[in-house]
């Protein structure tokens, strides 16, 4: 089975004013990749990028995307095989889940949640990945302090290509 490995980067406008810790906490509410890797504060930042993916190497982040998922709940399987949906699982229920139920977050919801932590300027998240012998994909997300947002995807593979863009205006 092939995996789509890639990388994500978060960039900022030169005039960005925000609470970095709150912004990271807000961004980490979503699943930006299938490998569970989250965003962290760049403690070595000297005027560069203040937020990084918590990984080393380009072979760690699987299926990165600016179309993140949000966990809606878990499925637990009882000893008799009965499946139960739990919307707000405890830590123990989450650790012993049979399946995760998630849904792609709308651009509007992303913009509303993340922009509230941006006082001035904007952030941009970009991702790229390659599934061997199938496709190459580039995603881009911009969220501005006024709550507006833009998201795009370009995918090329064999005889197939896809272009997608969407905007959210306040």
Summarize the structure.
It is built from 3 helices and 13 strands. It is mainly beta and 170 residues long. The model has no long low-confidence stretch (mean pLDDT 89).
Q: Distance N terminus to C terminus?
A: 42 Å
Shape: globular
Proportion of helical residues: 10-25%
Low-pLDDT parts are none
Mean residue pLDDT: 89
Topology:
Blueprint: E1 4-12, E2 17-18, H1 20-27, E3 39-41, E4 51-53, E5 61-62, E6 69-77, E7 83-86, H2 91-95, E8 99-104, H3 107-115, E9 118-120, E10 122-131, E11 135-144, E12 149-157, E13 160-168
Would you mind describing this structure in some detail?
- The protein has three helices and 13 strands.
- With 170 residues, the protein is mainly beta.
- It folds into two domains: 4-67 and 106-168, no CATH class; 69-104, no CATH class.
- Strand 11 and strand 12 form a beta hairpin.
- It is globular, with a radius of gyration of 18 Å.
- The model has no long low-confidence stretch (mean pLDDT 89).
List keywords for this structure.
6-stranded antiparallel sheet; globular; 170 residues; 3-stranded antiparallel sheet; mainly beta; 46% strand; single chain; 13 strands
